[in-house]
Design goal:
- The protein is globular, with a radius of gyration of 14 Å.
- It has one domain.
- It has a 5-stranded antiparallel sheet, sandwiched between helices.
- It has 3 helices and 5 strands, in the order αβββαβαβ.
- A hairpin with a 4-residue loop joins β2 and β3.
- The protein has helices at about 5-20, 60-75, 85-90; strands at about 25-35, 45, 50-55, 80-85, 100-110.
- Helices cover about 30% and strands about 30% of the residues.
- The longest helix has 17 residues, at about 60-75.
């Protein structure tokens, strides 16, 4: 899906993936400190095909969390990943942020219930 999406779009996408008995990993921003590209509650979904839906900030944040989501899919184990946007890292990647994001990554598969607000 391109453009703006809503929480309902995300929930519908998760429901469709689970109904089709596919697997996915859901990344949710659970804590932020300082200036970050997204705030608590932002979500990104990565399915077993590698398709991405939603956003947690773009750029280097999203690339790193995409890789972490693929690891969660392989392991089947949830985890929390901290992403520190140092001023050097932000400048290298064209970001204007300089905070810390904590992201909860959880595997989703048929029969699971994601931790949704």
């Amino acid at each position: 899906m391109e453009g703006k999406w809503t929480k309902i779009d995300m929930y519908e996408k998760i429901a469709r993936i689970l109904k089709e008995k596919r697997r996915a990993a859901l990344a949710t921003v659970i804590k932020t400190t300082g200036s970050t590209p997204q705030k608590v509650g932002a979500k990104m979904l990565v399915d077993e095909r590698g398709t991405l839906f939603g956003t947690i900030g773009g750029g280097c944040v999203e690339a790193e969390i995409y890789a972490e989501a693929r690891r969660v899919l392989r392991s089947g184990k949830a985890r929390v990943h901290s992403f520190r946007l140092t001023s050097e890292k932000a400048a290298e990647n064209g970001l204007v942020c300089g905070g810390i994001m904590e992201i909860f990554l959880e595997p989703l598969q048929n029969g699971s219930s994601p931790a949704l607000p």
